[in-house]
Amino acid sequence: MDLLSLSIVTGGLLLYSLVSGRLIGTVVTAPMVFVAFGFLIGPGGLNVADVSASHSVIHTIAELTLVLVLFTDAARIDLKQVRRDHDLPMRMLVIGLPLAVILGAWVAVMLFPDFSLWEAALLAALLAPTDAALGQAVVSDKAVPTRIRQAINIESGLNDGIVLPAVLLFAALALASSHHGTPEAGDWLRFGLLQVTLGPLVGIAIGYAGARLLDTAAESGWAGTSFQGIGILSLALFSFVAAELSGGNGFISAFVAGMVFGNTLRHPCVFLFEFMETQGQLLMLITFTVFGAALLPEVIGHITPTILLYAVLSLTFIRIIPVGVSLLGAGLRFPTPLFLGWFGPRGLASILFVLLILEEAALPHSDELFATTVVTVALSTLLHGVSAAPLAKLYGRLTESMGECEENQSVAELPLREGMRNTSEPLEATK
């Protein structure tokens, strides 16, 4: 990325910050704006910015974003509160997520007969994680019951890290099957197993040790408040690097380290919430800009009816049915399962998985996997962004008329990826 391209991207970020308050609660979301902005300045539009997904700077930003998102998403989820109050996201993660991968793989086998079973499973896993930021109004609008908002928030915070080992394992198995009968097949299998076993072990050790060290330093007065934040970010990066050096997967390590750290640390993790509202948001918006400028134009001329059909099914049938099955017996009224099923947008995790994992795997059908993932995320950005605010208001009115029901049960609130502040309200109202 040259200086002109950098100035255009930063100028776009500045312009959006000036009008962002007016867009809160509307059908125009930040991911929609920056995907469109990226497409406009890239080769699909005016072609005034050189934003290449293969550029080393973009690759580094993508790696940094995924490490920090995985770490902070896991660290902000209090597992004790989840076990005590939040059975809905637990059902969706334990039952719904595996069912979505299985159903997605089955549909992929039907629609893409040339895919191997593991390539079909890989596609389903790439599109399994959700991103609540694409439908921000749903998780921030107070009209939606807290229990439902938190179900979407918690599921989104954990499913990217949970599905990541499956993505890596399916990619390794797909590569092994494509080298069937050669020495490379066994190498890929060993590589995949090391990635998903060593990574969590390193993450557990570093997350626990980091939390204990930070607690001790803070209690003794050795660590200043601002440098506690720097220490936390350094811990996230250290967990990634240490796992990579040991032969494990750094992204899995960062997720596990964040989970252990956030649930071991005795002091409030205020810095994490501040980071998610500023630097974290910046990295995510840059990622959506790269998506619009570099990834979307690459596939837009190669979209087939089959790819489009799978993208639509991924956002509807493949998502809604598993969520509905996972919620059976929870006592929820219609249309809550449908609402929770629809608001499983595909966004940041899928983009980053494509950038950092799929490009490393020279699979026979990498182009189709890449195109299907990109088209699904693009559709999700548009459809979930447009529908979030009006459907949140409509669903809020419906649940208000239900009175006492499972949906309206009181539960503890956990922070959103964007922080503790209710982002459906203007900044002045929160002062």
Short description:
The protein has helices at residues 3-23, 30-41, 56-75, 79-85, 87-111, 117-126, 136-140, 146-178, 183-219, 225-246, 250-264, 270-277, 279-300, 305-315, 317-326, 336-342, 348-356, 366-402.
What does this structure look like?
- This protein is 72% helix and 0% strand.
- The chain is mainly alpha-helical and 431 residues long.
- It has a single domain (3-430), classed as Na+/H+ antiporter like fold (Up-down Bundle).
- Helix 2 (30-41) crosses helix 13 (279-300) and helix 10 runs antiparallel to helix 11 (250-264).
- The longest helix has 37 residues, at 183-219.
- Residues 420-431 have low confidence and may be disordered.
Write out key terms for the chains shown.
Na+/H+ antiporter like fold; 0% strand; disordered C terminus
Number of domains: 1
Topology order in helix (H) and strand (E) letters: HHHHHHHHHHHHHHHHHH
CATH first level: which class? Mainly Alpha
What CATH calls the topology is Na+/H+ antiporter like fold
Give the radius of gyration.
21 Å
Shape descriptor: globular
What percentage of residues falls in helices of 4 or more residues? over 70%
- The count of β-strands is 0
How far apart lie the N and C ends? 38 Å
Structural class by secondary-structure content: mainly alpha
The main sheet comes to: none
Unreliable segments of 5+ consecutive residues = 420-431
The number of distinct helices, counting runs of at least 4 residues, comes to 18
Proper CATH architecture: Up-down Bundle
Question: What's the pLDDT, averaged over the residues?
Answer: 87
Beta content: under 5%
